[in-house]
Each structure stands twice: as structure tokens, then as C-alpha cells.
Amino acid sequence: MKTVGAAQLMIVSTLCVGLAACGGGGQGNSSNGPIEPDMRADARQTTIWDVFGNRTNPNTTVAVNKYLWNASLDVLNFLPIQSVDPFTGVIVTGYGTPPGGGRSYRATVKISDPAMDARALKLSLQGPGGASVAPGTVRAVEDAILTRARQMRIRDGKL
């Protein structure tokens, strides 16, 4: 009689456990019919093939006001652009000195609404080394962006 080696025992055990895991015993289905899949989106499990699928929605719209976006880029054109994301409405700039100014600034702009509204525009200015900027300066730049956005909208004839 042959003896079973440890490696063979481990392989057989692994196969048995794998086969047992494939069973549908714990599904709570007491009928002998096929198990109906749960088609709810939150109950659907992902598979390895989901990685290769194209899941982008072609009907996704940008939720950013184009006039505020373009006015922000126009007013802050003296600052070097570090990153822009029109889908989230974020513009991040590097340090730059405004024309006729002696202090450098960097700006972060967030446009959070497709409506042309002052509440949709959030502006953050920083001085060198992360120094804070006077609230009046921030308000003046916000007003310049809003004024430029209105001018662009009037020019397009959509007022």
C-alpha cells in the first residue's frame, strides 16, 4: 500500500475546499429551480472583466459655468496655470506678480455651480510662503472675475 505524501494531501485538500466553495448551499433558496440573479445595481458584484469595460457615461455634462470659468482664466492670466479640471471646476495656479504689482500671489479657483452666481465662485489667494492675503484683495479679484463673466455673457447676447 502506498503512503500519501504531504504535498499530495495539500493539493487534494485545496481542490476539495475550492469545489465546496463553488456550491450554492448558503443561498437561502429552498426550491430546486435555478437561482434568480439579483439585478439591483447596489447588489451587483464586480468581476475582473469590469476593469476592461468602458463605464464612462457619454451623457455626462460639465457642471461649471463657462463664463465664470473663462473669466477666471482671463483675469488671472498673469499667473502660470498648474492644473485645471473643468469637470470639478478647479483651477490651480502657480506664483506670479500682477501687472503693476510688487507682491506675488498664487490662486485656487473653484466654480461649483453651472449658474452664473457669485456663490458659485470660490477664490483663494496666497502670498509667498503661504502668507494670507487681505480679504479686500480677494474680494477685488472675485469682483473682477464676476464683472468679466458678465461682459462675456453680454457679448454672446445671452442676457
TrEMBL record:
InterPro entries assigned to the protein according to its UniProt record, in alphabetical order: DUF3576
Keywords annotated in UniProt: Signal
Signal peptide: 1-20
Pfam families, A to Z: DUF3576
Species this protein is from: Paracoccus saliphilus
Name of this chain's protein: DUF3576 domain-containing protein
Superkingdom, taxonomy of origin: Bacteria
Upper lineage: Bacteria, Pseudomonadati, Pseudomonadota, Alphaproteobacteria, Rhodobacterales
PROSITE patterns: PROKAR_LIPOPROTEIN
